[in-house]
Amino acid sequence: MTLSTFKNVFFSALFLTISFVGYAQEASGDDNDSKFDAKEMIMHHVKDAHEFHIFDWNGKPVTISLPVILWTDQGLVTFMSSEFHHDDSGTQIVEKDGLRFVKYHEKVYQLDAGTQELVFDAEHHPTNATLPFDVSITRNVFMMWVSVIALLLIFISTAKVYKKSNDKVPTGIAGFIEPLIIFVRDDIARPMIGDKKYKKYMPYLLTIFFFIWINNIFGLIPFLNSANVSGNIAFTVTLAAFTLIITSVSGNKNYWKHIFWMPGVPVPMKIFLMPIEIIGMFVKPISLTIRLFANITAGHIIILSLMSLIFIFETFAIAPVSVGFSLFILIIEIVVTAIQAYIFTILSALYIGMATEEEH
Amino acid sequence: MDLITPGLGLVFWTVITFLFLLIILKKYAWKPILGAVGDREDGIKKALASAENARKEMENLHADNERILKEARAEREALLKEARDIKVKLIDDAKSEAENQANKIIEQAQAAIESEKKAAMAELKNHVAELSIDIAEKVVRAELSSKDKQVQLVESMLGEAKLN
Amino acid sequence: MTITGIAAIGAGIAVVGAGYGIGKIGGSAMDAMARQPEIQGKIQTSALILAAFVEAVALFGVVASIIS
Q1: What ipTM was estimated for this complex?
Q2: Same domain, yes or no: A117 and A145
Q3: Is C41's Cβ below 8 Å from some Cβ in A?
Q4: A237 and chain B: CB distance < 8 Å anywhere?
Q5: In this complex, is the C-beta atom of A187 within 8 Å of any C-beta atom belonging to chain C?
Q6: Is the pLDDT of residue A245 over 90?
Q7: Most B CBs within 10 Å: which of A72, A146, A168, as the mutation test of the B interface?
Q8: Which of A112, A136, A160 is where one domain is finished?
Q9: Which domain holds residue A75?
């Protein structure tokens, strides 16, 4: 087994599943895989992709083909991502409903009518293609659904335990899940929102906590972690937007007064504080977004970088160091999965608590 | 830069997935679980409260028992004392009655004796008087049987009765 | 020096600041916990939240340097 085969199998199996085929094709001119671009590989891993790559075997990628769904100016167009034949360089053209599509750097472009291939400008931006609205089931969406199925299985079977037993004693899976739910209730919702109002927000806080946590955990499991769901900014920005919406909707008069017309300070100060408070209102969810995204992505990048050392130095001798360090980081990451889910939830609860606080 | 530009497709799917998850879990998981946990906590609270109540009741009962026992003891004590008093009183009464009776009998006896004595004395006196009168009669008769003697007596009597 | 190099230095400076901040929070939290072990849980929660706030500022810095 050559180092390059080992590299493909190793990365695929342990952490990532990026297709090296794209590079192999690109670099096929200079005969080889000795050129290992760690940055490219890592970026490929932490970003979204249109197919779920499981591993490479002898240079052939084994993937789960996912549907590509595009909203073009001529309506909805769908086809399987396998039709690109693992191409990511924009050379493989898929023709559907009279429209031609290419995939370049995990973006599906719609070629302008009459053109036959993608033309790039000096900065490698395609010039003769447009980006249709891409609502494909990408690998992140796919993994998100896997996590949803896992959550539904876990929690509905937990709920069943209580339905079955008359005395409501938590047995089996409920014995493990119940302390977590009580933790969210007693250590997050109650102290942050208050005893009177916390009940209304419990479903949201519980869902967000377990949704983030399970996606963080899936991000650490080999094979499943080829998708980096909770380390994707689109995912985190959406959840933070939910928090912003809930905070704004449940904000009472007192909350809005503190934003637009701060009580207890002179009028010039009120005018001065208003824009700051309005910015603050949006900075809160933005910080939620960036914190989760950066923490999870940073964890993935560090582990991948450590592993890449083996292939950068092209020797097995560095492997113990790499493996040792990434094991250490992985253990920290296990703690981080829980802490980030906890922080996201507790800060959401804190913001909701601030919005619903009564005047005192 | 690409890394921190949210892809709209993923945003779209995240919104749908999250809302779906929230609704399903809320209905089929959070409600029953939180309900069951809440019910159980209420049950535990109630059980604790009722245990506390039972304990208090027990304490009350205990206190009651103690009180009743004390009362009973006091009552017994009182009864015994009363009985003892009655006994003493009965004996005393009997004693004084007997004494009275005895005194009365003695008094009566004394009175009877006295009266008998008086009667006897009176009779004796009468007898003595009669006897003395009889004797005196006889003496006087004997004395005054001769004239000399009568004159002698008058003389002596006159001599005795000096006129002063 | 290229723009990426400067950006990397910026990110590094942001991390130094955050490291100092989080270190201070951690140290003070430890002090407080040693002084009042009975409210350890509360201190831990607040320390985590404060660390998250400090971290957010550093992450803003890092993201800003990524954007440039």
Answers
A1: 0.85
A2: no
A3: yes
A4: yes
A5: yes
A6: yes
A7: A168
A8: A136
A9: 66-136
